Amino acid sequence: MNDNAPLFRQVTIIGVGLIGGSIGMAIKKHRLAHEVVGMSQHHASLVHALKHHAIDKAFNDVKKAVQNADLVVLSTPVNTIMSLLPSISRFLKRGCIVTDVGSTKVSIVETAEKLFNSAYFVGSHPMAGSDKKGSVYAIPDLFNHSLCIMTPTERTNKAAEEKVKIFWTRLGANVKVLSPMEHDKILAYISHLPHLIAYALIGMIPQEYLEYSAQGLKDTTRIAASSPQMWNDICMANSKNIIKSLDEMVKSLSVLRKQIVTRDEQNLVENFKKAKTKRDGLNPTPPAEKSNDET
Amino acid sequence: MNDNAPLFRQVTIIGVGLIGGSIGMAIKKHRLAHEVVGMSQHHASLVHALKHHAIDKAFNDVKKAVQNADLVVLSTPVNTIMSLLPSISRFLKRGCIVTDVGSTKVSIVETAEKLFNSAYFVGSHPMAGSDKKGSVYAIPDLFNHSLCIMTPTERTNKAAEEKVKIFWTRLGANVKVLSPMEHDKILAYISHLPHLIAYALIGMIPQEYLEYSAQGLKDTTRIAASSPQMWNDICMANSKNIIKSLDEMVKSLSVLRKQIVTRDEQNLVENFKKAKTKRDGLNPTPPAEKSNDET
What we know:
2 copies of one chain form a homodimer. Chain A is an alpha/beta fold.
């Protein structure tokens, strides 16, 4: 395939906020489609996306938005993706590829595979984003050096999977493949649990103590600035894995608690050392990705 | 007082790592002393501090280092400060002011007040630092826009307290005053607990999941790269407050857990919203302070 040829004639992005707007800008920057169509229920978002060249055309009607699309990208929170799947499925043309950006994958992929007949669904989770939301934060380089997890199953059309992989790769992402179940299990630990912890931590600190906070607390709780509704939905969609990771976290805290109470300094230092080694091993983030985070 | 006049003839800094080295550089930059003396058991640190003009003279002998000092700054981890107090107390000249940078204050202040007769102790906790340690990371602007908590008691000499306050202020810090007990209670929540959580979180995530981590996890666990020995010492010195904050954190997590299990979305969203409001209210950090954190 010619690396410079557009991958798709028409790409339709449903939801033109931070992620959807950035996808539109990146598609246009890298010339991956002849035409980018945006759909949103928020008029202001569409106006902003048009003005900032994230999309070429705007619709607030599902049928009009998707009926000619070769690729549809569902760029909304998990619950909205779930409710969009049946409504778009009636209007997709044969061979249309649909992917999404949802933070959980099992329920989305299962639902899409039941609904779609002549269109191809390929689950995706681009792990770029921010605690900020909205189209005003969209940037064309959001996916540069980011990770995108794709979650094909044995029912996924191989050609569609390959095309979606090329799509994310040309948007700058490093693509990894997991099953939907593996994805939801791993994300519970590396993303959903940290968000719950950040919310719980800042939530339990007395307000009057916060004037003494420094960078450590700010970093540890940065993701508690994320959207409450979106994280509620993720907790509901991935509750089983999240509860399991939460229980293990509490167990992990109780081990440290016991070591402090019994003044078992040898094992406390040992635990801190093991944790530090793991933290030191996390790849440093390239500067361009610095403000990104997974959702 | 003339703002440009040196505050002290001789300042002795014991421990010339990240904090001590930065104090030396800042003293010299702002001309707060005629002479800066450094003391360390680590020959390489002294050589580095001399070479980078953090200190003018170097000693590895306590008596020589402190006997002519007008201000002594104990810039070591808590446990070393505790063992330095009796050894320096014999050699201080009458009227010498001693302060420290320890991350916990009750045990240090109590011990110093028992030991010192003709010298004046004023507890300090400059909340600047990094997960990095060592003199190579020292910079003269480490305290710019940072917070320094001073912990005087009714036994603290008022003139000495005032002079230490001017000292930190001229180093660029914003000084706040707390009692040693208040300090240790508040710091348990805003600094010690977040460190424990960061260690526990990265510690409990299976190693093979870490390749999927993004910025959220990196930020949440950044401070788990901090010194294991130092954090062990802090846990030991402030165990009672830390255990209390840890128990409240676990309670806070169990509230979220219950809301997820019972699918109580209304209260879950409400909790996330309250947490987000608190997090949004944390003052943004000036760029210069970006890599700093409390210890």
